[in-house]
Amino acid sequence: MNKTLFPLVLVFLLSSLALAYPDGDQRAVILKGTRNTRDLGGLPTSEGQFQSGKLYRSGALCFASREDAAKLHGLGIQTILELRLDSEIEKDGPDKDYLLEKVPQQLHWPMANSHGLGQEAYLSYMKENGPLFRDFFALLAKPESFPVLFHCSAGKDRTGILTALVLESLGTPRAVIMDDYIHSRRITPKLKVQEEWLQAVFEHVDQAGGIDSYLSGIGVTSKQREAVRKNLEQE
C-alpha cells in the first residue's frame, strides 16, 4: 500500500469501527523506568473484548525504580518474559532483582533476527522465531501463567509482533492492532515505528492462509488456541 495513503486508510478504518475501546493512554501503566508499559485489556475481539489485568506489553524493566516494582507487584504479575538478547542485557542491565523477587515465573527467550532493519527485520523475526511464538502461545494457554508481562528493549518491535499475533488470534480488527502498535510512537516520537513494518507481519500471516493456519504451521494446537481465547477473552 502507498505509504502516503496508509495513515489515512488507518484513520478511516478506526472511525468506521464505531467501537468504544480504551486507547493506549487509558491502558497505560505509568512507570518511571519506561514509558511503554500498557495493558491490552479492553481491546475488541471477535467474540467480546480482551480481559483487563491479564497481559501487559512493555519496554525493558532494567531501569525500573522500587516504586515501579511495587506498582507491578500490585498488579499481581506472575510471569515476566524477557525478549532481549544477552548483548542487550549486558549493555543496559538485567531486570531489577527487587522487581523479580516477587514474580514466580521469570523467562528469558531471546528473540533475534539474522539480518535487516525495519520491514526486512520484521520479516526475519517472523521467519526465524516460530518455536518462540509457539512457546508464547503455550504459555498463554496455561491459566497459572497470568498475569503476564512481556518485554523487549523499547517495547515496540519484538513486543509489537507478539502483541499483534495474540490480538490477531482473538479476531481483533487489524486497524485496532495497528493503532496499539503505533501508540509507542505517540508517546515517544523519537522511536522508529512504521505502519508498513507491522503490515509485513500481517502479510506473512496471510501468505500462510490466515492466523489459524499460521499458528498450526508453527506447532500451536487448536486446543491451545482455544485455551488462549478462554484465558484472555471476555464477552
Description of the structure:
The protein is an alpha/beta fold and 235 residues long. The protein has one domain (25-234): Protein-Tyrosine Phosphatase, Chain A (Alpha-Beta Complex), CATH 3.90.190.10. The protein is 47% helix and 11% strand. The chain has helices at residues 6-17, 66-74, 86-92, 97-100, 118-128, 130-140, 158-169, 174-187, 195-207, 211-217, 222-232, and strands at residues 38-39, 44-45, 48-50, 55-58, 79-82, 105-108, 148-151, 233-234. A hairpin with a 2-residue loop joins β2 (44-45) and β3 (48-50).
Task: Please render the helix and strand layout as text.
Blueprint: H1 6-17, E1 38-39, E2 44-45, E3 48-50, E4 55-58, H2 66-74, E5 79-82, H3 86-92, H4 97-100, E6 105-108, H5 118-128, H6 130-140, E7 148-151, H7 158-169, H8 174-187, H9 195-207, H10 211-217, H11 222-232, E8 233-234
Parallel strand pairs: 4-7, 5-6, 5-7
Antiparallel strand pairs: 1-4, 2-3, 3-8
